[in-house]
Amino acid sequence: MNKNTVIALLVGVLAGLIIGYSVGSSMGGGSSRPPVVAAPAGAPAPAGMPGAPGGVNAQQRIAMLQQAVAQDPKNVQAWSQLGNDYFDTNQPQKAVEAYAHVLEAQPNNSDVLTDQGVMYRALGQFDKAVENFKKANEANPRHLQSLFNLGVVYAYDLKQPKKAIEAWEKVVATDPSSGQAIQARTQLEQLKSAK
Q1: CATH homologous superfamily for the domain 3-27+34-193
Q2: Among the listed ranges 47-51, 82-86, 106-110, 131-135, which one has the minimum average pLDDT value?
Q3: Given CB 3.0 to 4.6 Å as the disulfide criterion, which of 14, 44, 113, 118 pairs with 136?
Q4: What are the structural domain ranges in the chain?
């Protein structure tokens, strides 16, 4: 891989993370039972960059990112994008491991904690998912996706509706007009009507 390819890859990863965070924090919408937890904070790279439509496919990008982290194990952006690509290609164990590298450098990164929590849930490790979602919300009390996901695990996986209600009510109280609050209200109604 030549120097220009590495630079283009890193620029694409960074742009994807910034765009993904911006888009992810403004998205929302209703859902039916059971809700799907959010996708990773990254987003597709701009046109012409790896991962963009017409660009490099996910498996090729994963191979490039694996090479990048092998050459520079402290490359947090590459680890983060690698985790996101593993997330998107349904490789939860590899995603958990990639996100762990990011969290070594950024232990309070709420987005990565949440994404890793989603992957723990996919692996059936619900207690670890709960731990991640709680830590993400402690690091950033306005991180609504972690709170919403916490409610999902409590309601659907751990069968603890009281804790789910508590998490979703906190989402609504924190930002009543957010997409997550709309989803939380829907889930609260469904949970209360199921009693």
Answers
A1: Tetratricopeptide repeat domain (1.25.40.10)
A2: 47-51
A3: 113
A4: 3-27+34-193
